[in-house]
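Mods, move this if it's the wrong board.
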Amino acid sequence: MAGNFTSRFTPVECSMKASSAIVAEDQVVGITTGELVLIRKLKGNMFQTVLRAELDADPEGGAAITVSTGADRIVFVFCLMFLAAFVALDLLWTLAYFRVFQSFQFSDEDRHNYLFVLMPFICTALGVGLYQLGRYASRDEGPFLTRLFVDATDAKPRGRAMKMNAPAPPKPKKPKESEDGPTIETA
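Not the wrong board. Structure tokens:
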């Protein structure tokens, strides 16, 4: 969940208001500087959502705010490193299974032990599944943290089309009257 917002406050004032909201809300912790605000919930899992708000001075006055929510960057990098290691292991395992290299291959007995052969692939799938499960468990944190920050800084969405005044819809035509008296619709 990401978005671009503007606020009538300066970036430093937005940072101070966000800091006040963090202190007032007992479920969250965070850190604020003049250019960056990081907020996360106190209780959560390793893959919990972190709100990252970058504050810049808006040329029209106030602050331009770029908000993004998602897993903490260090957790994401850590998961990518493990994923790369397991994918490399999967590639080496595949090369050994198909006997591509003369000095690096499985014996005939190992080739028939499918649990041994498939274990790195199963671990890779379980690691991706664990990450997805953690993100699913913290799916409600993004909107909560965004609403907390936007309400604290009095931010308005930026980049949306303005609602134009549409012409009034045409008036319905009067029903035709017959020469005998009542209208055709009422007869």
